Amino acid sequence: MSSNVLATDSRYESDLQGPGVAVLEPPAQRREATPRMEVTAQATPASSQGMDKTVDKTVVSFRVFVSDLIQLTKPRIVVMILVTTVATAMIAAGGTVSLGTLALLLLGTGMVAGSAGGANQIWERVIDRNMPRTAVRPLPSARMSTGMATAFTASMGTLGLAILWMGFSLTPAGVGLATWLLYVFLYTPMKTRTSWNTTVGAIAGALPMLIGYTALGGSLADGTGWLLFGVLGAWQYPHFMAIAWLYRRQYEQAGFCMSTTVEPTGISAAIQSIAGSLAVIVCGVVLCCLSPGIVPAAVCSVAVLAATVPMLKASIRFARSRTDVTARRLLRSSLLVLPAVLAVVTIRVFW
Q: For residue 169, what are the contacts with CB-CB under 8 A and spacing of at least 6?
């Protein structure tokens, strides 16, 4: 750049020495133009940085939006349902299931379950503001509009039912619809009216067991399917009673009718925890004994007992001393029981 300027200056000087009129602009004017060009060049990175910041904000906003959509579906519950669906599908099929079939089943079941969770949050969006545990959800915190949540929930549920119906049969789709209706229109409003909501919620939460079972050839008339339903339904009592005790004050402030708010001593919650633990043991052992073979049945039954007895002991400890410590131990124990029992009864199919 400097060599070009020097060349231009020399030509200008030669034109002045010779005859004629100089057509080049004076050096002073060119020297003034140069700083302006440099200022313009310096301004370009600043505007680029502004654009980068705008892009970054857009990316962050999109990520938050996607995260809110996922949170609206209650992903932890959906994951639990999908795990149970895999087990029940393999049990119904009597062995392995192709990845394509399994992926289609999980997609349909997950969308129905996620839609039910979203509809539950739409219903409870006002009361959720009163609980620190739920106030950070997308709707109570006003990060998402009710209209957007409704559109997302309705479309996802409709598509999920269509997948179950067209990909498999009317029976799993019907079970999925029954699950959705029971969870949204019965369990959800009951939470502020009666502590029996736990029982209704346990039924609604266990029905997806029958989605996977009937999708892969099982029948609603089979005892195996209902025993699987019993495992998940009974497991929810010790699991959710522990949660109800740990968050009893928040539930009470928000206006929810839980066993621990209606009967604050926790005796009722403890009794239901023990009963649920015993029911899981019974259903699991019976499932192990349905298939032929004494030795496999005995081995799997012992494995079920090894997996479930710790939860029963934790329930008894909670009954003797109803504290946050014993409730938290019960909750942690319950998290291991369901996958362990399902793993055992699924392995039993191959043995």
A: 214, 215
Q: Which residue range forms the structural domain that includes residue 135? A: 69-220
Q: Among the three residues 220, 235, 254, which one is the final residue of a domain in this structure?
A: 220
Instruction: Indicate whether 124 and 198 sit together in one domain.
Output: yes
Query: How many Cα neighbours within 13 Å face the side chain of 307?
Result: 26
Which of 308, 315, 258 shows the shortest CA–CA distance to 287? 308
Q: Is pTM beyond 0.90 here?
A: no
pLDDT digits (tens, 9 = 90+) for 176-226: 999 999 999 999 999 999 999 999 999 999 999 999 999 999 999 999 999
* Amino acid in the structure at residue 300: C
